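Our consortium's second objective concerns turning raw sequence data into structural hypotheses that experimental partners can test. To show how far this objective has progressed, the report includes one record in full. It was chosen at random from the queue rather than selected for favorable results. The single chain below, 211 residues long, was entered without modification.
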Amino acid sequence: MDQQIPCQVARPGDAAAVTALISAAFVTDPLWSWAMARPDGSTAHHARLWRVFVDGALRYPWTWLTEHGEACSVWIPPNGTEMSEEQETRLAQVAHEVLGARAETYFELFERFAAAHPRDEPHYYLSLLGTAPQHRGHGFGMSLLRHDLALIDAEGVAAYLESSNPVNNDRYASVGFQKIGEFQAPGHGPFVTTMWRPARLADPGSDVGRR
């Protein structure tokens, strides 16, 4: 899919739809399926955890949905935070409720995310990019990402992400992200690749990225 697809900024009223999409997109992800695992193998609790992240991101106008809900991107703008203090408390409560003792590993993982996150230059942070399973393989996610990056380029700002699935690394590289490091989840868990896209300027003759 080379052409730009219609998309719009998600609003607080879209939180349930974004959460459902993210939950479905990441249910088999190497990192997140491991981080949220329960002894009974259930996955219904994933949505409760993701909802806190979605609510946190929706404080900013930087969560994007394709027109028919095939894919979504969740960004935190420069100097933003993933969630408020109240939401951090809520996440801790939910995590201990649904993960039990494994919540400690879950939060140790986030400490490693924070330790690896660059802080020296303002940047947009791609917290999550997901495509609904039934729409994979058609380019919706990458088309949405290119749309977002055009807007970021128009501001002349850098971007950062963590790749939780190594099969996506080349896709991110194809739009300008460069590997800057990696870290391993606690307890010999999966590896996470950290990637940075330097600030650049949009093509002044292009309409891509204009709102």
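The partners drew two points from this record. The chain has seven helices and seven strands. Residues 140-155 form the longest helix (16 residues). Both points have been shared with the crystallography group to help prioritize constructs.
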